[in-house]
Structure formats: C-alpha cells, structure tokens
Design brief:
Number of helices: 2
Structural class: alpha+beta
CATH topology of one domain: Translation Initiation Factor IF3
Helix content: 25-40%
CATH class of one domain: Alpha Beta
Oligomer: single chain
Order of helices and strands: EEHHEE
Number of strands: 4
Length: about 110
C-alpha cells in the first residue's frame, strides 16, 4: 500500500485485516454552473447527446470530494478508507453538492 491511502467501495480488503477503525470521514464540494457552460449545454440539449460540460463539472466535483475525504483520513493516521460511497444532490437552482464518505481504518497484512 505504500504512502498512498487505499480507497475502496469494499467493506474489506482481501489479504488484509482491519487493525483499527478510526471513524467516518467525508469530503464535500458545492459547484455552481456558469453562464458560458449553460449556454453551450443548452445548445447540446437541443441537438441531443451527452452534455460534456456538465459531465466534466461533476467529474471534477467527485475528484475534489474524494481528495478532501482522503485528507481527513490522513489526518487521522489511516492507511485506507473502506466502504466508500459517493452521492450528489441539488442544493439550489444551478448548484449541486457532491459528497464522498467512508470509514477510515488502519489495515495490516493477514
């Protein structure tokens, strides 16, 4: 596992056991749309197909939420975050929150 923190949606990691549970960690980010992106998305919506601008915006939000979650896990001394989940919700017109959460743990080889 080295210096990096293992991040997994699994509740356990084959070949490892949970030595210590450090607690729930989360990271969130709220992003708003912008006029330029909205205009381009509007044009794509007329033609049909993927709205790449929003796909990229959500991907950036997921990446940032995971990064923030990992920072909190590191601060606790974790070497892994298990049971990771991602969720997103509209919090107001034109803005959405993306949250990453899981359980920070210390894993050791079996």
């Amino acid at each position: 596992m080295g210096e990096d923190i293992l991040i997994t949606t699994l509740e356990y990691v084959p070949g490892f056991r949970v030595k210590k549970i450090l607690g729930i960690v989360s990271g969130s980010v709220v992003r708003a749309r912008n006029i330029g992106r909205d205009f381009t998305a509007f044009l794509r919506n007329i033609a049909g197909g993927e709205i790449v601008e929003y796909t990229e915006l959500l991907a950036q939000s997921r990446d940032e939420a995971i990064k923030r979650m990992v920072e909190k896990a590191r601060a606790l001394g974790a070497n892994a975050v298990i049971g990771v989940r991602l969720t997103s919700a509209s919090i107001m017109s034109g803005a959405a929150e993306t949250v990453a959460y899981g359980t920070a743990v210390i894993l050791e080889s079996e």
